[in-house]
Design a protein that fits this description.
The chain is an all-alpha fold. It has 4 helices and no strands.
Length: 64
């Protein structure tokens, strides 16, 4: 499922991910998160951000 849709379903915004990523040891700003989610970058860091976001959202969906 699309990351943006998953965020909406969980009542989260992209900026909310900054803190959630930090809890997993990943430092990211809102521009980096946006680039990763929109697939506008193939940088290794952005791929790691996207993988971590997917993991975070999956965990939250399972708790819901």
């Amino acid at each position: 499922m699309d990351t943006k849709i998953r965020l909406l379903q969980l009542n989260l915004k992209q900026v909310d991910l900054i803190e959630l990523l930090a809890e997993k040891g990943i430092t990211a700003n809102k521009v980096e998160i946006n680039l990763a989610i929109n697939g506008r970058s193939t940088q290794t860091k952005h791929k790691k951000i996207l993988e971590a976001v997917d993991e975070i959202l999956t965990e939250m969906e399972e708790k819901k």
